[in-house]
Amino acid sequence: MKAHPFFAGVDWDAVLQRKHKGPIVPPVRYPGDAQCFDIYPEEDAVRDEYTDEMLEKYDDYFKDF
């Protein structure tokens, strides 16, 4: 990702050392403050069963994950 042309001018050492403030600094009032996140309705816990057919189709995508 660092090698992508979009980030060509980024000094990654300065980022690591936190020498610059971010362009957007959210107001955080306490640890765990989530005021800047959107609220979404809870999803039902009902999920489709992971079948053998799905295993054959998708597991290769995650073999090194």
Q: Could you please describe the fold and organization of this structure?
A:
- The protein is mainly alpha-helical and about 60 residues long.
- It is built from 2 helices and no strands.
- The longest helix is centred in the last third of the chain and has 7 residues, at about 50-60.
Structure summary:
With about 60 residues, this protein is mainly α. Helices cover about 20% and strands about 0% of the residues.
How would you sum up the major sheet? none
Radius of gyration: 20 Å
Number of helical segments with 4 or more residues: 2
Strand content: under 5%
Percentage of residues assigned to helices: 10-25%
The tally of beta strands, per DSSP, is: 0
Uncertain residue segments: none
Q: SSE order, as H and E?
A: HH
The assigned structural class equals: mainly alpha
Mean pLDDT: 90
Spatial shape: flat
- Please report the distance between the alpha carbons of the first and last residues: 18 Å
List the topology elements.
Layout (H helix, E strand, L loop, with lengths): L11 H5 L35 H7 L7
Features:
mainly alpha, single chain, flat, 65 residues
